[in-house]
Amino acid sequence: MFSDTVLKEINDIKAQYPDPKSALLPTLYIAQREFGWLSHEAMHVVAQSLNLPEAMVRGTASFYAMFKHKPMG
User: Which domain holds residue 12?
Assistant: First the structure.
């Protein structure tokens, strides 16, 4: 789902933080930047790439108003 460039960017972010949870917000931002919004599939890929529970990713994404959960016009 993510391009190789985006996956490299996510891996660089993961390397900066000892705990994958710390990389969650920047990774969600990258996913939203790439797709324009955070679909269920995008959050699933973020969860897999950070090895975090999908419920944690969805809960974090739904908490912050800066993340969009439907396509914007």
Answer: 4-63
pLDDT of residue 2: 85
pLDDT in tens, 23-72: 999 999 999 999 999 999 999 999 999 999 999 999 999 999 999 999 98
CATH number at residue 25: 1.10.10
Report if residue 73 sits inside a domain: no
Choose among 55, 61, 53: nearest CA to 27: 61
Residue 21 belongs to some domain of the structure = yes
54-66: buried (b, 16+ CB within 10 Å) or exposed (e) per residue? eeebbebbeeeee
